[in-house]
Design a protein that fits this description.
This protein is α+β, with helices and mostly antiparallel strands. Strands 1, 2, 3, 4, 5, 6, 7, 8 and 9 form a nine-stranded antiparallel beta sheet that branches. A hairpin with a 5-residue loop joins strand 4 and strand 5. It is rod-shaped and about 95 Å long. The N and C termini lie far apart (135 Å).
Length: 235
């Protein structure tokens, strides 16, 4: 076995050190290349697509911002104008609906009354069952039309006394009976709440009252209380 001389040992140490330096340098080169590739990849992601012409990059282009703000304002103005138009259309629709509602709105035929006989009751006072609703009130109390319609007849009718018939747009007849006086004529148009006569005691009665009948299509009578309730009126 040969002993290493100091000279040989020194040369060997130097060789080892040099090899380590070379390895270290190679690692640094490898890391540097890797970093450069990552940077290039990052820059590639941040680059615009070839052929495109972006107006804004990382900064804010004031001219583009002004254009977008103007476009936004224009869009908002158009939207508000459309909403205003729709609001006007809705108001018109609501106004028409309100007119239609008022057109179909009924009212009480008289005031200061008490109900004394209801539809369908039986009594020796009537040849059959009671065909209307009786509003007892002092003689001379004003009677008004319950709905919009046309006066189709006014005159004395036996047991009904002085009677006014008003025909509504849908063909329903409303009879107002036992009046002491009438204030409309056949063919006259009347509105809800318009005066047509006065409570009386003409015909077959036991006291002054309004006998109200409702006859859809001019046919058989129905309960006036139900008809009134169907038009938001509760007697």
């Amino acid at each position: 076995m040969l002993l290493r001389s100091p000279l040989v040992a020194g040369v060997a140490a130097l060789a080892v050190a040099a090899g380590g330096a070379v390895a270290l340098n190679q690692g640094q080169v490898t890391q540097t290349v890797s970093d450069q590739q990552s940077a290039q990849a990052f820059d590639a992601v941040d680059q615009p697509v070839r052929g495109a012409q972006p107006q804004v990059s990382r900064g804010v282009d004031r001219q583009v911002l002004a254009q977008q703000a103007a476009q936004q304002a224009e869009n908002r103005q158009a939207a508000l104008a459309e909403l205003t138009e729709k609001s006007g259309e809705r108001a018109t629709t609501l106004a028409r609906a309100e007119q239609e509602r008022l057109k179909n709105q009924w009212v009480l035929p008289t005031t200061g009354y008490r109900l004394t006989a209801r539809f369908g009751q039986s009594s020796s006072l009537w040849s059959t069952v009671h065909t209307g609703l009786d509003f007892a009130a002092p003689a001379g109390t004003k009677i008004v039309s319950v709905a919009q319609g046309t006066v189709t007849s006014v005159g004395f009718d036996g047991a009904y006394g002085n009677k006014t018939v008003i025909t509504l747009e849908d063909g329903t007849e409303v009879w107002y009976c036992h009046q002491s006086a009438t204030s409309v004529t056949a063919g006259q148009e009347v509105q809800p709440g318009e005066a047509i006569g006065a409570v009386g005691a003409t015909g077959n009665v036991t006291g002054p009252h309004l006998h109200l009948e409702v006859r859809p299509g001019g046919g058989d009578p129905i309960d006036p209380a139900t008809a009134l309730a169907d038009h938001n009126v509760k007697p």
